[in-house]
Amino acid sequence: MALPQLRYRLNERLGRLKRLQGRNEEALLLLESALEEIERLRGTVPQETIRASFLRNKTIAYEELLQLHLDQDDEESLSQAFAVAERAKSRALVDLLTGVVEPSLAPDDPELEVKFRELQADLNATYGQMLGGSIDGESRVPLSELQARATSLEQEISRLRLRAAATGSTADVFESPSQIENIEDRLPSDVTLLAYHVIGDEVMAFVNAREQLHAVRDVGSVEKVRRLLQRLAAQWDRFRVGGDFASKHLALLERSARQVLAALHAELVAPLEPLLGEVESSFGDGGSPPKLAVVPHGPLHQVPFHALFDGERYLIERFEVSYAPSATVFALCQERARRDSGGAAVFGVEDPLVPATVAEARAVAEHLPGATVRVGEEATVAALREAAPGCDVLHLASHGLFRADNPMFSALKLHDGWLMASDVMELDLDGALVVLSACESGRSEVIGGDEILGPARAFLGAGAASLVVSLWLVQDETTAKLMQRWHARLREGTGPAAALRAAQLEVMREHPHPYYWAPFVLMGRR
Length: 526
Prior knowledge:
alpha/beta; 4 domains; six-stranded mixed beta sheet; five-stranded mixed beta sheet
């Protein structure tokens, strides 16, 4: 058969049939052939933006092969199952991190570039109006009209990027995916990896603890987790009513949030306690806590695992928690060399919604000797582009706008415009520590192949080794305290993950509700 699109689908369906019939050897050959065909097809796509969505409707073959290996219930099959799960997670991001493909950048054709900059200026103005501002005295435009205008401009900008990529790409055909083979051997031995995977409505987990891989089936239900996440989002939304309401009802709000976080803990962590308990007990009392790296999957990317509550303690009180889109991305980030130029850049952009950002920027800079500080009119897009290549630490305190309908156009507000996630790919941040002290900077839209789309993907793709982002709308005064204490710990020589945990525990003692201390997470190198 000469049609590869039909060939992988036929092999996938025949492989599923053989698996259900118990003819495992035949199923294995057919499903592996399907995956090889899918990856060959993926290798013909040079544009990073298209690769990110390539597996959107092609993950069934991976799930079938994963279940086939899990059903064998032996050590070799377990390792194979974990490898297959990794092949279905954030592959386009892995391609970016390993240089297999280049990001889709702004056009370098003069005519296209002029058009591109005009569209971006229009989009900046539209974003400003969407947040309640007006431009040159314009009257307020209905939000629905602004959203439609933004979507139209974003689509045209995306088309220009694709045209530029198609005419200027020098990407080679996809190489053999050697970077994801034997990933277990590349994981740090002192970190327990907790990698979730969704199969239908089942949440399962791979736990790599003390160099031993385990699989736990039927950890929880996807549908139940979705319902709990809706309830959790409602808990955070209560703080939008205003500070007076929150202060008056804070004890009740904390109890209510803990109930939801306890239910999520029961659904996602409690079934893993035999393994996690062994890890915890091996560290004894006192000293540094065990290190835990969480790899979510599907809707679990919205779960604040470090804030899950077991009835007595939050997970962060037991473990030093970090996150990663996949085990492969986690391993690659640990292997990245940190920048050591001694430079730091801090940006603070004041906004009515986040008035404490400038104070935060100045306070953070006190813990970064020699830092370049840009606030107010100096905090421009051009200044950020200029500062990025030379800094070990980049701290951005500003307002953030997450676009669930078009996540790579999520943006951070600077003085003269918006830095969109798609523009971040143009920055040189290799080995840098990046802090996005902005609302919802860690939110992502997750598409097929578990590709995360949003600011986190963009900054990791631009080379950041470690990234601190927020999962929900933050309270800027407590955020300023947390960031100042985190940077103080970093200056003392504490690692990023341990420093963030220490800062969060300090804020927790003053402001016990998780809304205040738990929004920020660390991704990448610990």
